[in-house]
Amino acid sequence: MYSFYREIHPPTGVDHCVKCNFYSHAEKNLVVACSSYLRVYRLTEVAGSSESSAGSAGHCKLQELAEYQLYGNVESMDSVELVDSYRDALLLAFSSAKLSIVEYDPATEELQTISLHYFEEDELRDGMRLTEHTPVVKSDPEGRCATMLIYNKKLVVLPFRHDSILDEHDLESPKLSHHDRSAVLPSIVINLKELTTPVVNVKDFQFLHGYHNPTILFLCEHQPTWAGRVPVRKDTCGIVAVSINMSSQQYPVIWTITNLPYNCFKVMAVPKPLGGTLVFAVNSLHYLNQSFPSIDASLNSITDSTTNVPMKKQPGVVITLDGCNALFLSHDQLLVSLKGGEIYVITLVIDTVAVRGIKSFNFTKTAAGVITSCMCSLGGQFLFFGSRLGNSLLLKCTSKRRAQEVGAAPSMKRMKSEDILGTDDGDDLEMYGSEISTGSSQQTSYSFEVCDSVINIGPIATVTLGEPGFISEEFSDRGEYEMQLVACSGHGKNGALTVLQRSIRPHIVTTFELPGCTDMWTVLSVEQEESVDLNTLQDVDAHAFLILSHKDSTMVLQTGQEITELDSSGFITSSPTIFASNIGEKKYILQVTSSSVQLLQGVERIHQIAIDSHYGAVTSCDVAGPYGVLLLQEGVGLVQLHEEEEQRDQLMEAGMSMSDDVSNKSILTLDWPKLVQQPASKITCISVYKDTSGIFSLDVLDADLFFPRRRKSSERTCLPSSVPNKSLIDEEDELLYGDDLLQVKKEEIKIPSDHIPSTPIHSRPTTRSILTYWCALAREDGSMEIYSLPEFHLVYSVRNFSAAPRVLVDSGPIHTHSSSHQVTSSEYRVKELLLTGMGPHYSYPHLLAMIDNDLVIYKAYQYPLSSVQGHLQLRFSKHNHRILLRDKKDSKIMKSTDVMGDNTKESGSVTTHVPQLRVFRDVAGYCGVFVCSAYPHWLFMSERGTLRCHPMSIDGPVVTFTSFHNINCKKGFLYFNNEGELRISVLPTYLSYDSHWPVRKVATKSTPHFVSYHPEAKIYAVIVSEDEVCKVLPKMSATGDETITLDPVERDDRFIYPTYEKYLLQLYSPTVWEPVPYSKHEFDSFEHVVTMKVMNLRSQETITGRKPFIVIGSSTAHGEELVSRGKIIIYDIIEVVPEPGKPLTKHKLKLLCSKDQKGPVTSLENVDGFLLSCIGQKVYMWNFKDNKDIVGVAFIDTKLFIHSATSIRNFVLVADVLQSVTLMQYREDMKTLAVISKDPFARNVYATEYVVDGQQLGFVVTDAEGNIVIYQYQPEVPESQGGKRLVQRCDINAGTRINTLFRIKCKPSVSPLLSREMRMAVTERRHATYFATLDGGIGYILPLPEKTYRRFSMLQSKLVTGLPHAAGLNPKGFRMFHAPRQASAYPQRNMLDGELLWRYPLLSNKERCDFAKQIGTSQSLILDDLMDIERNTAHL
User: Fold this and answer.
1) Please, how many CA atoms are within 13 Å of residue 753, restricted to the half-sphere of its CB?
2) Over the range 1344-1379, which residues count as b (16 or more CB within 10 Å of their CB) and which as e?
3) What is the DSSP letter of 429?
4) Separation CA 687–CA 786 (nearest Å)
5) How far from 1386 is each of 437, 639, 1148, 1286, 1294, CA to CA, in Å?
6) Nearest to 269 by CA among 326, 214, 206, 327
């Protein structure tokens, strides 16, 4: 068996975040790591409401600028500013001990690898093959070096070059130029055990501030202990500070403190001028300074018995710090997010006597937010809270006290600075006896406002397939079930049900049958306002006319309350329309036929231009603003609108008066510009673009603004002659006088922040007051040119555009005398071109093209290093959209492509191209491009700034499309399907399309564990849990009858009680996604729901003999001293008479059976109508009789602890928590449950499912190492030992843990252009096995034929070595099977990496041909195979 692995939804949980100058030193960016993805954001200010107060930072959102996929999970991340660099570099640590230093490359908009470091040698491992410790990388605050802790035993130091430093490598190679020297010097490995004070069991480490050499503080535990040994060994942690002298490679220990609480887990360096460090323990907080006594604060009463460290009780605070994240708002204010989402601001109260010490902590609870995994300050008042358990948030932190001081002039100046909240001159004023008291910061109250959120659908616990709550009647009789995916996401108060669908299902308002229509347009009319009533007068954007073009005529419909055909108007209806649109700021209508151009105002024709037959007939047209460009058979025409107001302004500027007899009607002019072109190269398509971004400009750009070079280290350290160098200052003088003088002098030479642009000019869209217009065109030779309008001057040219390169670069002016230029083959013919603005205010220019049958999308960005004078200084980078629109070249299919095959229509004897790329504005609040094809797609771009691609396959091929706004169809759209039906539709507004899939999150405010769909009641059953405080202690009764008593436990007010999960069963309706009233069932205290499924058990109530029931398995756990028991609970959903006005009350839960078990019920499964339950290592088979009771029919003992069971027919695959999987079979005639085969190797299994490929059956297993393994039962194979062992056939590493699997029958890979009967006759005997990960990703495993596998396997090996990979990572090593033990399994590697193979369609045509030739095939065969996979898995 051969299979194909692919991830179709990327991970969304945020693991790490860092703020850095990713693009240039002119702006700050947010970089987040989501498993194996890097995403770059910018903080942008949007138009705020008038209610926003003056001086506020405005309403800001996160704009996603780039996304990079890595072949490795980011374990740790930091940033560093290298010498002579235009931007910051990222330090990325990967398992086991890999480190990559990358930075942004503006020439290609990709990640450029600067340095690679590999520390996986056996000498560094000290004999350890596997380690649970992930590498942690941190950079020095002053940029002198970076360190990475590997294997929890060794420290890797990476020195960075400075201008004033020469290392031994430079001295040995004096001929190296300044640019040839690397910014990263050779690494140094320090064995922490060999220091003067050995450092072992490192829990955390940080760089300290204010030291001459880089100084690292380690938090370590010399004698490990745990909570059970606290009475014997308590204070086992300590800190060790090590100074790193990179020149002499000496590492002295300069500071040690021992006897800290055993549960210390985190250290944070306190910024200057305070200095020192904060040590976080679970129940206490400690401030340590080398020069001052420590400050120890107890946060609860548990410290009384767990530590001997003398502590001061923190008044009014009863919290724990385990699992918290923290960041400094200023040198004396710390923001802490606890594990429950509570937000505290901790103020370090300065001791005025000690000058630089602190005397106490002040805790202020400000808000409760998301449960964070990382935190980052974005400058100003904005904070980013990254989360793996909920949506990541952008927060605005404001202070009421500072807000009151905004009215004063000095405070206004501080508010405009880019300093973090709370950073002002208060620390200096305190130190020098200002009238502001030390307690002023304690009176500050904080408020947090959510400005933006980044959606996260992980961690996904379980998923289920169900029917959507609403689907249009037009789609209900298609013979295919439309499904949606419902997942349990989040934890605690961030818990939610995530409703996902991969494709868009529009809501149909009405349908008209209009066969023969080839194209259509909707236009506005200013006369519309005079004919409508007052209720619709305000809707000036409503479309007035619908123009339908047929083969030999045109139909014009007026769209109002009703859609009626116009009997008489100025439109030409006797011939087909080539193009129709509004022109001149929506005031006029332009209609273009093959031989004329009409200008209309409403239904009145005000101007008409006949096309000279010398230029041939019009084949296409495009309009933007007052300009329209006609593409004719023998040339290009420019149509320009001249309005009367424009003429009046010109006369008034000339000092002339206008007479009253001047015509009030606007006129059109038609010019015939002369283009620079090759003699044998004909124009194939055109596009007109109105630029509102400012990126398209002929002004010469200043390269210094795009690449602000970082000041050299000598410039940063050289001070005025009156100030000595900091390195020369005596340490005693620094301790006595501080470094305030140096700080003041440094501020004098800093560049003011007001002169630095907040965003990089090369990527920042700017709204220009003067609009510019441009025309892009493509030729038969494969070149693309951009001309300025109305002059038609060539300003950009790309000769190899039809090859679809990764980056489009200006090729320079075209030489007309060249005659050796060859015409490009028709295989790479540019069929259609579209240059349009997308996103907010249409300020993100994108170039889309249909090259052959492939869609390519480019994003424009300014690039000043252009060698062509007088041309646009920009480039276009290719967008990875992963859309395949091609069909197999089959004769049966080609006969059906009369409409969609070539997207052409005949106008008399002229063949014109029907545009496939249709721009839409404001469809349900979104703008973008709709792709008409046999596989239609939506391209959205919202304020997030990311292009989202969503298919719409529910209605088959789409011939033509246009947006439509009407009183009866608000912000909707129209489209024709392949059967000649006109659909008037709207997008469902309850879904968010600004995501990888259309998604809706239904908040449960509690942790969802299980969800299952009841097909008869069309209801979702959900198991959730809520945390409750436990103030009782379960004990066995003295009688010995296993009766458990709950004794109350009383502690002091500062004691933190433990919590337990209280489980509930709740029904949800998919129509409104609200809980069904009176359907909640609460379980007993300490009763945990371990599994829940909806099963079709045997029942005599139905004709089929099967009926769906809700079956629940629970476990009651009272602690390790009491025996755990369980229950099997069976519910039925019945219908009752609903309450008036409450239609959801028609469903109620009815308890049918509740049977106690002697152990915890860990798994349930339906086996041919029987109920299978797993209780510990025992497996039971039950028969549900008379809907009242379950009767045992068979049982069997297994290995250790069964936690998962999956069945197909009468076969059962059970998974052990440590001993892999076992295949069983139930025989009803003999009432026996027997073991068929099993996996002999140990494996920590997470989930199981089946792979169906015709008559072959495979068993999918996921484990704790992130592996996906497929087994088969093959008794004829020698290694199976006669069928006793399952044979491992396929394996791959997903890089993340997979907790749930499900199967769907594959869709046929036939063309949708075939008739419905022919499509239904083709069936697939394969199943696609889908999986969902704990990082929020979704993917599938698909079995492949051997011939396809061999072709893809050769291609994959070529792509591994032939393509550059970000951060220097190896895809083959990343996907290799990870065995927890050496020789515990035998990797087979028969599973292909679809993530790597899907990069093939994104390559240029030349690269695709080269790779295809290397493996002896053609690119069409490879693309056809990829297309088959895409069509087979076009579910949801």
Assistant:
1) 13
2) beeebbebbbebbeebbeeeebbbbbebeebbebbb
3) H
4) 9
5) 70, 70, 52, 12, 17
6) 206
Across 1297-1390, where does the E strand assignment appear?
1298-1305, 1327-1333, 1338-1344
Q: What is the mean pLDDT of residues 365-380?
A: 88
Give burial (CB, 10 Å; 0-12/13-18/19+) of 1056. Answer: middle
pLDDT value of position 657? 38
| pLDDT for the residue 123 | 83
Cβ-contact 773, 689 below 8 angstroms: yes
Whether residue 12 has pLDDT greater than 90: yes
Nearest alpha carbon to residue 3 among 1431, 1296, 1430, 1429: 1429
Q: What is the pLDDT of residue 1371?
A: 92
User: Do residues 612 and 634 make contact, with C-beta atoms less than 8 angstroms apart?
Assistant: no
As a whole number of angstroms, the distance between CA 635 and CA 674 comes to 9
Tell me which of 276-285, 600-609, 668-677, 1183-1192 is least confident: 668-677
Beta bridge partners of 1190: 1184
Residue from 774, 569, 777, 802 nearest 685 by CA: 777
Give the H or E element holding residue 1425: helix 1419-1432
Q: Are 557 and 997 in contact (CB under 8 A)?
A: no
Give the Cα separation of 733 and 1072 in Å (integer).
71
Point out which residues pair with 240 in neighbouring strands. 218, 256
Cis link prior to 410 (omega < 30° from 0)? no
* Rounded Cα distance, 1305 and 1288, in Å: 23
Q: In 517-552, which positions are buried (b, 16+ CB within 10 angstroms) versus exposed (e)?
A: bbbbbbbbbeebeeebeeebeeeeebbbbbbbbbee
| pLDDT at residue 178 greater than cutoff 50 | no
Reference 428, options 325, 331, 571; nearest CA is 331
Quote the CA–CA distance of 886 and 931 in Å, as a whole number. Answer: 13
Whether the predicted pLDDT of 864 surpasses 50: yes
* List of E strands, 1030-1098: 1032-1036, 1044-1048, 1059-1069, 1074-1075, 1081-1082, 1087-1098
pTM of the model: 0.87
Length of the chain: 1436
Closest by CA to 279, choosing from 251, 250, 311, is 311
DSSP three-state, residue 717: helix
Interval 375-390: pLDDT, tens: 999 887 899 999 999 9
How large is the angle between the packed helices 1405-1414 and 1346-1362, nearest 10 degrees? 120
Taking the C-alpha atoms of residue 720 and residue 109, their distance in angstroms, rounded to an integer, is 39
Average pLDDT over the chain reads 81
Q: Are 901 and 894 in contact (CB under 8 A)?
A: yes
Three-state DSSP at 1095 gives: strand
Contact 823, 780 (CB under 8 A): yes
Please identify which residue in the block is written with the tokens 């709740």: 1066
Nearest of 443, 402, 442 to residue 419 by alpha carbon: 402
Distance CA 389, CA 1316 (A): 44
Distance from C-alpha of 597 to C-alpha of 321, rounded to nearest angstrom: 73
**Is the preceding peptide bond at 1308 cis, omega within 30 degrees of 0?**
no
Q: Quick check: 1315 and 1397 in contact, CB under 8 A? A: no
Q: Where are the alpha helices (DSSP H) in 328-390?
A: none
Phi, psi of 716 (to 5 degrees): -75, -25
Q: What is the mean pLDDT of residues 744-769?
A: 38
Distance, CA of 223 to chain centre: 42
- pLDDT by residue (tens digit) across 1284-1335? 999 989 999 998 999 999 999 988 877 666 655 665 555 678 899 999 999 9
Tell me: the pLDDT tens digits for 1013-1024? 999 999 999 999
